[in-house]
Write a structure and sequence with these properties.
Layout lengths: L1 E4 L3 E6 L4 E7 L4 E3 L12 E4 L5 E2 L3 E4 L2 E4 L8 E2 L9 E5 L3 E8 L8 E9 L3 E9 L5 E3 L2 E7 L5 E4 L3 E7 L2 E8 L9 E6 L3 E6 L2 E6 L5 E5 L5 E7 L5 H4 L4 E3 L4 E12 L7
Antiparallel strand pairs: 1-2, 2-3, 3-4, 5-15, 6-9, 7-8, 10-11, 11-12, 12-13, 13-25, 14-24, 15-23, 16-20, 17-18, 17-19, 19-22, 20-21, 21-25, 22-23
């Protein structure tokens, strides 16, 4: 585990999976529910690539070939291929770290050099760069799976228009429909927020998430005291529905990033 800090915000990063286990400030407020690298998608902030969330049936066709992915209990692939893979530290100082690994898998058409950078500079900035070091094109969706802490009632407030990914059995169909968030609710749904900016408000304070190229957000409420607001470059099952799918050619590099800032309530929250 490696701790980063700017003197106010503290972020703990594990090399396995480029996983963020803890985000808290010097007052002791935990902004991300403390996670365990052995169960990375149950808390903390997991890194998801080369697909984010589900791939229907755990298989897909790409450029004339069929690929099989690890299958979960639902019969789908989920959360990418790097969750527990070892990353090595390429560079770091007290406020930033760069981790790297190479993605190789029989269920993927090519090889990707993956670099993940975390910076703590009054906010948490997360960046992932992918270089196609193989000989075939690379289909890609990248995301993170943070469980942001909330206290009491909460509300999601997007800047501008929000569109919900119409889904069947948690798999988007490819159709987008207008949506307005209310107070609280239960979700396991994907949304396209065209501004790339959404705020999560509760008695704890405000968590503000912004991105220029990760404008799909999976919202999941399956953990008490948390709302997972997951920035993604494309929708779940993009390998089939094409929503946000990026193709990286050999020797090409693409980069994706988001920033999250935390503003505490003026008075201490009560559970």
């Amino acid at each position: 585990m490696i701790a980063l800090s700017d003197g106010n915000l503290v972020v703990e990063v594990h090399e396995a999976g480029a996983y963020v286990a803890v985000v808290y400030d010097i007052t002791g407020v935990e902004w991300v529910v403390k996670g365990d690298p052995s169960r990375p998608t149950k808390a903390g902030m997991a890194f998801l690539a080369p697909y984010a969330n589900r791939v229907r049936g755990a298989s897909y066709e790409f450029e004339g070939a069929r690929y099989e992915l690890p299958r979960n209990s639902e019969g789908h692939a989920i959360h990418g291929l790097l969750l527990t893979e070892p990353f090595e530290v390429e560079d770091m100082d007290e406020r930033r770290i760069v981790l790297r690994t190479t993605l190789r898998h029989t269920g993927y058409p090519t090889e990707l050099l993956v670099k993940v950078k975390y910076e703590v500079v009054g906010s948490l900035r997360a960046t992932a760069a992918f270089t196609n070091v193989g000989k075939r094109n690379a289909p890609l969706v990248v995301g993170w799976h943070p469980y942001f802490a909330v206290v009491g009632q909460w509300r999601l407030i997007p800047e501008g228009t929000a569109l919900r990914c119409e889904s069947e059995n948690k798999i988007p169909t490819g159709r987008l429909v207008p949506y307005s968030f209310g107070e609280d609710g239960e979700y396991d749904d994907c949304f396209l927020i065209q501004s790339g900016h959404v705020e999560l408000k509760s008695k704890l304070g405000v968590t503000s998430i912004k991105s220029d190229n990760m404008k799909f957000f999976q919202v999941y409420t399956g953990v008490k005291g948390a709302v997972a607001v997951e920035p993604m470059s494309g929708a779940p099952d993009a390998f089939h529905n094409g929503l946000g799918l990026v193709i990286i050619r050999p020797d090409e590099t693409r980069e994706f990033s988001f920033e999250v800032a935390f503003t505490p309530s003026r008075s201490p929250p009560r559970t």
